[in-house]
Task: structure prediction
Amino acid sequence: MAKKPAQKKSAQKKPNQKTTGGEKLRTIPVERARRLALGAQGFSDQKPTGAPTVRHFRRVMDRMTILQVDSVNVICRSHFLPVFARLGPYDRDKLDAWLWQSRENFEYFSHVASLTNVEHQPNVRFRMQHPNWVKGKAKFDTEQPGYLEAVMAELDEHGSRSIKELDDPGGRTGPWWGYSKGKTALEYLYLTGDTMVENRDKNFTVYFDLPERVLPADVAARPTPTDAEAFKALLMLGAKSHGIGTATDLADYFRLKMPSVRPLLKELVADGELEMVQVEGWADPAYLHPDAKIPRAINASTFLTPFDPVCWFRPRAERLFDFHYRIEIYVPEPKRVYGYYVLPFLHGDQLVGRADIKADRKAGMLLAKGVFGEAHADPDTVAPAMAANLHTMAEWLGLDGVEVGKKGDLAGAVAEAVG
Result:
């Protein structure tokens, strides 16, 4: 099976076995922590027996809380894959319509660019006051006097607009990474809360509009919580979607800063909102959500996108699954270990392998250019499971078949199983 890349050795800290009150922490085996985490993410839920509906999409979003949005389109748009991993094949147009047009969700930098339930919008308003964004917007306003006001007036009069639809979008000579002034203006207005993403079309073009036409009135009317109140709410949401996690795990879910997080976690533990526990083998204590349940078994068998909450925080994936994972999209090809767009493969409650997958739309084929197994994986079990998932994914994407390359220790077995 594939060998993990060499890693620098670091001294392992001894787990802290006491809380601030002096009592010993309850210890949870890492195997149970894995099942807790996967159950919280929806991998113990029954898959639909028929075509998935909006009700199923809601359940997936309730489990994950956050659905990351990214323009990567190697297989399909990245936000489609976490839902596919949990539900199996579904209508992507139906998902997009619900995500952006139902007004049940909103897009913002909750994690990075991502979607989450609109009920949580008040708790991320603090981010709209980020100093870099506020200062950048003010600087742009100085450099392009009156332009921001003109864009806002245009949205007010005509409704949602993409960058290209602006009366004066400008050329690609703007001050922000070569952006046009239209793109720069709409991005700053979005980041600081003056506009919202109203929709995305099939080409992933973003349409912006005024908040009062996107945000439900009852949500807009809610008072903005203090930073401490918002951070606590977001930490609890991260804990619910993780089931169990360290302080850094919970902070990363909504990209909160650790100096603010640590004292709030102490308060949440003191108030009985979270339980501090110890996971075997973890250097730092973990926090258990009171509603987290340990499934008897996880029967998942699916590929995970690099942007799936199960594996987007690499240190957590390594602690839970002993799975070393890095995105190699930006690594020069000769230096890549596994490939360009590599998806971990979840089988049962373990990450047992990975594959470099691409949809060749011109040829009508799903390509698995490299297929690798972990040292603990049984190739006789993993290879047929990977092959079945590749066939299902190809059919879901409307492709004609699957081709498996020769790279990787599982390539031959998966190619044979694909047929």
The first strand starts at residue 26 and ends at 28. Residues 2-16 have pLDDT under 50 and may be disordered. The radius of gyration is 23 Å.
